[in-house]
Design brief:
4 strands; 4% strand; 530 residues; mainly alpha; elongated; two-stranded antiparallel sheet; two-stranded antiparallel ribbon
């Protein structure tokens, strides 16, 4: 079938035949299906980690392998595309045919460069098959609540006078100051009454604060000033504290059962049942966090030692009261573990891949693949337009130009000691844009005057290569100018989103700009060689 299609194209559309687009598309469909399957089958979704890195890290050697396969396919296609045949010097007669040739080259290079992206899509599809977006969101809400009930250390459960109040002492509890560790209580002293205990201030479930990421900052600010998702998370944890204060054991037990259900769903061993869990941490009215209530917040291994800043704790199935590898005075009871961190990491990873717009790692992979494709199509197209000699000459010349630019910029930076770095950046980038305008002017002048081509074949290579760089260069000038004129207090922290938007806008711009380039090239090709 492929041979018949190629024969038909050879007779009716020789330019399309020469690009080998039909067999290449067939090959690429097969290759992409294979790598999608490899990415899917190689993905571990066992929820056995407390942190997940990028797909490139999790898939290991498969990423370099996919890149190597892409390079081999590209080389094989270029050999076929540029081999000696009757159409080696054939050239389209119309601008539309020329532009169509670049589009086909871009399509093929995109298919080739996106093999690592397809591998990633297999990885993502496997993770998203674990649960729907709504299920993952509900699981994260449950884990936010459960976090209050897993005292893994004292720092997050410590009292702070800035935003905590001492836990009141119930009237029916009589405390003897002589038998207490007074560092755990708020006390007052006067001559008449002596020491009076006003409340409990030791580590407690009621003092839990999530210090992860930016939440430490949030607890010092008005809660209305934070993101909605973070505010909802804090409110969920406040609700659990209210359940503890109000003695709503049924509500607490319900989320413990739901947590156990999550463990079973993902095949995680249950080392602490809801009943034992409740018995361990439900100690009203103070709900203290100490050695007897400690629970590891991730799945401990067989002989793993859980160690906090306060004290080391042996794994739950350890038989020894003395922890191996630590001094003998480190004695402790064994501690159970609840894999809240394992589950949180897994479900966060799932949610990351349901919204591509907020996944910088995935967007980075997409942009690398697309811009490698654009670069390759520009180089291949310019080689097709001009020829080997002019192409190699410009490649060497561009390398020299880049080297000189970097050398000059480094010299200017050193002379000014980086004091005017933005001005130097604007100046150096502007030189490249001016160079592009000069090249366009020279080509148009050649076309209008119908003079001899001369060295213009060399120039047109650089003109084509610079098309993908125009918007990024202009964007870099705008950013440098903004940095130059903006005060430190007025700094805007959305540059990453702006940069991503610029890269997306640049892609359709390049596709449209190459249409204009095709017009110039078609006119330029009509000029006499000598």
């Amino acid at each position: 079938m492929t041979k018949n299609i190629q024969k038909y194209l050879l007779l009716h559309y020789p330019n399309i035949w020469n690009i080998r687009i039909v067999p290449m598309l067939f090959i690429m469909v097969v290759v992409h299906l294979i790598f999608f399957g490899i990415g899917y089958l190689s993905t571990d979704i066992s929820f056995g980690k407390t942190h997940y890195y990028s797909p490139a890290s999790d898939l290991g050697i498969l990423y370099p392998t996919s890149i190597l396969i892409s390079l081999l396919i590209l080389i094989g296609w270029l050999v076929l595309f540029n081999r000696n045949n009757g159409f080696k010097i054939f050239y389209p007669k119309k601008t539309g045919q020329l532009y169509g040739e670049w589009l086909m080259i871009f399509l093929i290079t995109t298919c080739i460069s996106c093999i690592p992206l397809t591998l990633t899509q297999g990885y993502i599809f496997k993770w998203n098959s674990v649960s729907s977006y709504d299920e993952a969101t509900k699981a994260m809400e449950l884990l936010d609540k459960v976090r209050v009930l897993i005292p893994d250390e004292t720092e997050s459960f410590s009292y702070s006078s800035d935003y905590d109040s001492p836990i009141p002492i119930p009237h029916n509890i009589m405390l003897d100051p002589d038998t207490l560790d007074l560092s755990l209580y708020a006390v007052d002293y006067n001559r008449n009454d002596g020491i009076r205990i006003e409340g409990y201030t030791g580590p407690s479930l009621l003092f839990y604060k999530d210090y992860k990421f930016n939440n430490y900052y949030y607890y010092h600010k008005d809660i209305q000033n934070i993101e909605v998702s973070e505010r909802q998370k804090i409110n969920r944890q406040k609700q659990v504290k209210e359940w503890l204060i109000n003695g709503q054991k049924d509500s607490i037990y319900t989320i413990m059962l739901a947590f156990e259900k999550l463990q079973k769903k993902h095949g995680l061993p249950i080392k602490l049942t809801p009943d034992k869990w409740m018995e361990r941490i439900y100690n009203p009215p103070f709900f203290p966090v100490n050695r007897s209530t400690l629970i590891a917040n991730y799945q401990l291994g067989e002989d793993e030692v859980y160690y906090t800043d306060e004290y080391p704790v042996a794994a739950a199935d350890s038989d020894s009261d003395v922890i191996a590898g630590y001094p003998e005075y480190y004695h402790t009871q064994t501690t159970p573990s609840l894999p809240s961190e394992d589950l949180s990491a897994g479900y966060s990873h799932i949610l990351d891949y349901y919204d591509y717009n907020y996944n910088n790692e995935l967007q980075t992979i997409v942009f690398i693949c697309l811009y490698m494709s654009l670069a390759a199509s520009s180089f291949i197209f310019s080689f097709r337009v001009t020829g080997r000699k002019e192409w190699l000459t410009m490649l060497i010349s561009m390398g020299i130009l880049i080297f000189i630019s970097v050398l000059l910029a480094a010299g200017f930076y050193e002379i000014t000691r980086w004091a005017d770095s933005e001005v130097i950046s604007i100046f150096m980038i502007s030189l490249w844009l001016i160079l592009f305008l000069i090249l366009v002017t020279k080509i148009i002048f050649k076309i209008v005057t119908k003079g001899k081509k001369g060295r213009s074949g060399i120039y047109i290579n650089l003109l084509i290569w610079m098309i993908p760089c125009l918007i990024p260069l202009i964007y870099a000038i705008l950013i440098a100018f903004e940095e130059l004129t903006r005060n430190y207090e007025d700094r805007y922290y959305g540059e990453d989103e702006q940069f991503m938007t610029m890269l997306w806008i640049n892609i359709p711009f390049i596709i449209l700009a190459m249409c204009l380039v095709s017009v110039l090239v078609r006119r330029w090709k009509s000029i006499a060689e000598e």
